[in-house]
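# step 3/5: fold
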Amino acid sequence: MNATLKMGLMVGVGAVALAALAASQIGFKYASGAQGIKATILWFAVAGVTGTVSMIFYTLLLRYVPLHVGYAVLFGLGFVAVQVVAAKFILKEPVSLIQWIGGAVMVAGIALIAFGGARGT
């Protein structure tokens, strides 16, 4: 497999894992505010299925990247995706400037972890 194809595959698998992780957390949030047992169970099911999909794609991602990179990318970016981006744009929760800055610092730290190891530094 050539390097470009491998990189594209890693990015695609990681993006699906990240999106599914965010969907799972959003599902749990909606389950917490659902009216009635049927709606609560439905949102728990959505959260469970998308969480499982996330872990399947995370496992696939680990075929191509070391554990420290895969974990940092998925769960670090997942934290930013849920706590800042999804909170603001999907859940319509207030997100302060300091939270946006904190998310940007986390993304920078994850990039340093992911790309710093490639140079052996």
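# step 4/5: annotate
The mean pLDDT is 89.
# step 5/5: archive (pending)
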